[in-house]
Specification:
Length: 289
């Protein structure tokens, strides 16, 4: 048996991103259920996870429903102690929990003025002083963690932990709205944007093609500041492969990459790969044969 995870639109739902990363980054199997934000479809999804009111929510293999990201993180850490969701060092672990809790409860100006939107990036979002104050606090706690425990890697505590999952949507906000932060903070943001798991999440959001106009802002746009994906295009079959690299089912939908045609079992598998071909290990292994 496995877990079930309820999420909203991948391009906009910051809390959904946190919940998904808690599974994806720590190798915990999960089946994802999606609902479209601000529609009856979202209420349909929540009805499958009572008594949850928001996403993310999970159903454990034994049937317990858990909402709220911190509760999900602690439940997974308790059930999967070898997965390493929290730092091993007790002092680092305490700091990581403190930071995650502050993320859940704090930074209202940043969250209100700069909602997560993974489909665009702006040249200048003209952040208010209140947003700059939130950024200053975020830089302070990031630098405190990095200074004491982050020497071994690019993440807050060296290796990736649940604290990084909680701050991933903050990193995307800095990228989307081109918010003013130090070079050290920008390096941490860049680590998130280049992370293969995050790239897969963003690619799936592009493939979903769920547009929420209320998230658009009236600022000049710039290219997405993360790694530039290889260019792939829609194609007609036949393909070099007979089976989808993800499901193993017969190939029915096709893309063209570097002069070669590849097949997938449905349009979503094709489109998520087309959005960022290098983010998908199964596809990379297929084309390297």
């Amino acid at each position: 048996m496995t877990y079930h995870l309820a999420i909203g639109d991948r391009s906009y739902s910051s809390w959904s991103l946190r919940g998904w990363l808690l599974f994806e980054k720590f190798g915990i199997p999960v089946r994802v259920r999606t609902g479209i934000l601000y529609t009856d479809d979202f209420q349909r999804l929540l009805a499958e996870f009572p008594p949850a009111r928001l996403v993310p929510a999970i159903r454990t293999p034994d049937g317990e429903v858990i909402g709220e990201s911190l509760a999900i993180a602690e439940t997974l850490a308790e059930r999967h102690p070898d997965a390493g969701l929290w730092p091993d060092d007790p002092a680092a672990r305490a700091m990581a929990r403190y930071m995650a809790a502050e993320m859940c409860a704090g930074f209202p100006a940043l969250r209100g003025d700069c909602p997560m939107n993974l489909l665009v990036s702006y040249e200048d979002s003209q952040p208010r002083p209140e947003v700059r104050a939130d950024l200053a606090r975020i830089e302070l706690i990031w630098s405190r963690a990095r200074g004491r425990f982050g020497e071994a890697g690019p993440w807050l505590f060296g290796r990736y932990t649940a604290a990084d999952a909680f701050f991933a949507p903050v990193a995307t906000r800095i990228a989307t709205y081109n918010l003013p932060v130090s070079d050290v903070a920008q390096a941490y943001v860049a680590a998130h944007l280049a992370d293969p798991a995050f790239r897969r999440w963003r690619a799936m959001g592009i493939a979903e093609n769920r547009l929420q106009p209320g998230y658009d802002k009236p600022y000049p746009r710039r290219p997405w500041p993360g790694p530039v994906p290889r260019t792939a295009e829609l194609a007609e079959g036949p393909a070099e492969n007979d089976a989808c690299p993800f499901s193993g089912k017969p190939a029915t939908d096709f893309l063209h990459l570097d002069g070669r045609v590849w097949g997938f079992c449905n349009a979503f598998c094709r489109d998520k790969t087309m959005a960022d071909p290098e983010a998908w290990p199964a596809f990379s292994q297929l084309i390297a044969r």
